[in-house]
Design goal:
Elements: E1 3-5, E2 12-14, E3 16-19, H1 37-49, E4 54-56, H2 65-74, E5 82-87, H3 102-116, E6 121-126, H4 135-147, E7 151-157, H5 161-174, E8 179-185, H6 197-204, E9 207-211, H7 234-237, H8 245-262, H9 266-275, E10 282-285, H10 290-297, H11 306-316, H12 324-330
Parallel strand pairs: 3-4, 3-10, 4-5, 5-6, 6-7, 7-8, 8-9, 9-10
Antiparallel strand pairs: 1-2
Length: 341
């Protein structure tokens, strides 16, 4: 296992992060996974044995059950682990049991600490946008939690570039804690993040935690054009996240060819491609079975040739969009050393 710096924190986190979203499996989360405590203990132990020191969950996953199960599975090994969790989702029937208000964040951080069985959270992330709470109030509250020692660092998830930059600016202006990372959807089959968000992450020196690196299983190797996968499939019950399936089929064909070169699975190629992107800090793997975990772990050992990387890039690259193509066009004669005579 290799380790990468999380922004400028000085913390090294494993390039694979274990995602506990499938722990518990109640409500809408049953389509993601229904892992129970004994299986969770085994998966977490194997992950630790393989060198994973980064674990991600959220208060909303199975209404807190995921956090409880992860806390139990980690047990006394807490001090060597980096735990990330999130806040924003609905956690009750009350009017204010949702969002990023000071009231809700304050309530939920205490609940998450209790469920995880710890007195601090390494990375506390806001799980998405709350249009009813000012950025100032959210950032001030997160800053207070860091000052009080309940949270070590803060991060965001599922935000647009302008929203992230505005919140970073507010924090900078007031001398508050700034986001150290973004958790976002990114895969070789869905590279939308590269348009606006990736440049921002590089500019702000923010880490990137990738969720759904195999597009909800679509890039795992089970799917082929005109052929549904056999057996149980998460995509059958919960067709998420969105992906251009026709384009993905073309990408999978190239991935399969390269997988043959490495005696690897298609899923390993999808994960390895992400690990070759310099903006990526860690990939969240949400495995339900031991064999899935073993397959994912082997992805860290794959090194592509330049030719393989070029093939993968060409088949998966984004179509130019405005204003991106205009910005690129207008730089064409900006450098005096590159002008034609």
């Amino acid at each position: 296992m290799k380790y990468r710096l999380l922004s400028d924190t000085g913390l090294f986190v494993s390039e694979l992060c274990f995602g506990a979203m499938g722990f518990g499996g109640t409500g809408m989360w049953k389509n993601v996974g229904q892992t129970q405590q004994q299986e969770a203990n085994q998966l977490v132990s194997r992950s630790l044995e393989a060198g994973i020191n980064f674990f991600d969950t959220a208060n909303v996953y199975s209404s807190g059950i995921s956090e409880e199960m992860l806390g139990k599975a980690l047990g006394s090994r807490r001090k060597d682990i980096i735990i990330a969790t999130k806040v924003r989702g609905r956690m009750g029937e009350g009017i204010n049991d949702i969002g990023l208000s000071r009231v809700h964040i304050r309530q939920q951080v205490e609940e998450s600490l209790r469920r995880l069985g710890t007195d601090y959270i390494d990375l506390y992330q806001i799980h998405g946008l709350d249009i009813y709470t000012s950025f100032e109030d959210t950032m001030r509250t997160l800053n207070d939690l860091v000052r009080e020692g309940k949270v070590r660092y803060i991060g965001a998830s599922n935000h647009m570039a302008w929203q992230l930059m505005k919140m970073q600016g507010i924090a900078d202006k007031n001398g508050w804690e700034k986001f150290k990372s973004l958790q976002a959807y990114y895969s070789i089959g869905a590279r939308d993040l590269e348009r606006e968000v990736v440049p921002l992450l590089k500019d702000q020196d923010m880490g990137l935690m990738v969720w759904s690196p195999l597009a909800g299983g679509f890039l795992s190797g089970k799917y082929r054009r005109g052929k549904d996968p056999e057996g149980d499939s998460r995509r059958k019950e919960f067709d998420f996240p969105p992906i251009d399936k026709e384009k993905a089929y073309d990408i999978i064909e190239v991935m399969e060819e390269i997988a043959g070169n490495h005696k690897a699975s298609v899923a390993q190629i999808g994960l390895a491609w992400l690990l070759h992107q310099d903006v990526v800090t860690s990939i969240i793997i949400g495995t339900k079975r031991q064999e899935q975990l073993e397959d994912n772990l082997n992805a860290v050992d794959i090194s592509f040739t330049d030719d393989e990387l070029q093939k993968l890039d060409e088949i998966s690259q984004l179509k130019p969009e405005y204003p991106g193509w205009m910005t690129q066009f207008m730089q064409s004669d900006r450098n005096p050393n590159e002008r034609e005579e």
